[in-house]
Amino acid sequence: MIHVDYKDRRPIYEQVIERLQDMMARGVMEEGEQLPSVRSLATDLAINPNTIQRAYAELERQGYIYSVKGKGSFVAESRKIKELIGRELFEGLKATAAQAKELGIAKERLYQEIDAAYGETTMKEEQRI
Amino acid sequence: MIHVDYKDRRPIYEQVIERLQDMMARGVMEEGEQLPSVRSLATDLAINPNTIQRAYAELERQGYIYSVKGKGSFVAESRKIKELIGRELFEGLKATAAQAKELGIAKERLYQEIDAAYGETTMKEEQRI
Amino acid sequence: MIHVDYKDRRPIYEQVIERLQDMMARGVMEEGEQLPSVRSLATDLAINPNTIQRAYAELERQGYIYSVKGKGSFVAESRKIKELIGRELFEGLKATAAQAKELGIAKERLYQEIDAAYGETTMKEEQRI
Amino acid sequence: MIHVDYKDRRPIYEQVIERLQDMMARGVMEEGEQLPSVRSLATDLAINPNTIQRAYAELERQGYIYSVKGKGSFVAESRKIKELIGRELFEGLKATAAQAKELGIAKERLYQEIDAAYGETTMKEEQRI
DNA sequence: GTGGTCTAGACCACC
DNA sequence: GTGGTCTAGACCACG
């Protein structure tokens, strides 16, 4: 389900956060669904419970999940999650576009790159057919 | 000229690198121009010379500048810098686009955001008129 | 295990890098194996931890090892290491051959030297028998 | 005649040494021929006379040239120069071959690389015809 | 004066 | 405990 890569230079708790965010954004984990307990997930991934605890705390702080004492942690409303993910992505895109403009890069050149990214994966899916 | 933010979580030497990359990309520092000496920039920013030294070493490794013992550090060819900056920007954009596709975001939505970024600044310039 | 030579004109961190590269290339240190910690190796060699830190950072950048905060540093995949070492060696050989050609040295003379190096050690091994 | 590259990371005096060694090895400068004076060469290359002085001193120490007080510096016997150049090149090759053997690389693989280096340039010369 | 290396000692983030 | 960053201060090589 989740996989941590020790060769990845980012801290493990960040990897866990990102993987969970991704699963929630893509609907693999649905609104209101209960997340695995800190201890069970720690056992599954063979890492320190403190690390999972930290990931969950951060996800709660950001608004992706909410915790109920004595019950567990749950996925927040999908509307909210979509908004959070979208805001982050668009902010990054905005910064990139601003920098590109400053460097004198035509915006059509950016479109082109986006088309390539979208088309590329589409091709792969077609090959699966 | 350059400013370091101690509240920023990123290491100081990275902030210095990015600021200098940016200045070179925008042509504020021209090809062949001598950068401030390690010691003088360290004094200006009120940080340790070793930290600047590290930033310069990394910039040289990446190809943005070249350093000569006893002479100083100098901005590399602008052609090369444009290429380096462009490659980095497009790689980031590619990753963003791939993520957006995975999240089911229409690429037209990305175009829209880019147009906004390009248009926005244009608006500001027009307001100056 | 490792030895630094203060009479050597090359910086200490480079000597450490080369010794470790050599050990990894020869299989003395195997894939995934944990390297000595920055502090312990520094103590062993009686040099400053920062110097070891720099060597490890460079080795990671080159792809020979990977480091994880709070865990340690580990030898990369042997396949990758073989490739890195081989590339370096052949590049050096290419430069030597090019220089030899320019000086009007027959390439058979180079073969001869290589045979000597290969044969010489073989002789030693035979003497052991 | 000689050219120094400020972008080259090696110190200028080393570049001057190598260029002169090369010219002597290839017979561009003949046995007994007088080298340009320290001051005139310094002026030509627009660098500090101390730098040239250092290069000449090092070349004399290595046996490539000899100086006569009040007269100038002269190229040593070509037999000696050939020997010096050859010794350096073959020592490097020997070390490379030894390392290759230790890594389990077949010596035929080294021949191949040498052939490529010799052949490649030969091709270019043929194209000139 | 310039860049480059090294030491000693401190603090942080992570696990 | 681990790796990573930073400071203060020193010394060297180069021009």
Could you list some keywords that capture this structure?
homotetramer, 129 residues, 5 helices, 64% helix, DNA-binding
What features would you describe in this structure?
The structure is a homotetramer of 129-residue chains. Chain A has 129 residues and is mainly alpha-helical. Chain A is built from five helices and two strands, in the order αααββαα. Chain A has a two-stranded antiparallel sheet with strand order 1-2. In chain A, a hairpin with a 3-residue loop joins strand 1 and strand 2. In chain A, helix 2 crosses helix 3. The first copy, chain A, is elongated. The mean pLDDT of chain A is 89. Chains B and D meet through strand 1 of B and loops of D. The structure holds a DNA duplex (15 and 15 nucleotides).
Q: Termini separation of chain A (Å)? A: 25 Å
Mean of the pLDDT scores of chain A?
89
Question: Globular, elongated, flat, extended or rod-shaped: what is the shape of chain A?
Answer: elongated
Query: What is the assembly state of the chains in this entry?
Result: homotetramer
Major sheet of chain A: 2 strands, antiparallel
Q: Structural class of the secondary elements of chain A?
A: mainly alpha
- Determine the fraction of residues in helical runs of chain A and give it as a percent range: 55-70%
* Strand ordering within the main sheet of chain A: 1-2
**Chain pair forming the biggest interface:** A-B, 28 and 30 residues
Q: How many alpha or pi helices of chain A?
A: 5
From N to C, what is the helix and strand string of chain A?
Answer: HHHEEHH
User: What are the low-pLDDT stretches of chain A, counting only 5+ consecutive residues below 50?
Assistant: none
Percent range for β-strand residues of chain A:
5-15%
Secondary structure tally: strands of chain A: 2
- Write down the Rg of chain A: 18 Å
